Amino acid sequence: MKLYRQTIADFGLYSGIELTGEEYRNLKVAAGQMSAKMRAVRIVAASGVSKKDLEIRLIQKGESTQDAKNAVAWMSELDLVDDKKTAEHIVSNCIQKGYGISRAKQALFEKKIPKEILTFIVIFIATASSLKELPSPFPDASEYASSINNTPP
Question: Is-above-0.70 flag for pTM?
Fold first, then answer.
């Protein structure tokens, strides 16, 4: 079993310690949770991912479904994974590479951006004649809707 320093410190482990069955089970659970969190940090540090994409990648890497969900929630609480910011980053990269609107939509879909954010951004993109006309960062959906309707958010 691979343990991180934090888990060792939390359980007060040292060489030669004997654990009861209950302590061992608790240690295994804590080790799984910490493993999922550390893997999530490495994945997010390497590339921008959506919450759903991160969860799927953690499960593919061997983390349990519950540990993956908990790790994504933990990353969200720390504001380290944000679907709207990821979508903005993806569209920004598409603009820098000179891609068109269709490629930007495809990139958003590939990163498993949630449907409500994807729909909003696709509509927002569709109203622009080119990606270069898009503001950065994107406004919130309520701000955009109010600007179209000339009503306050």
Answer: no
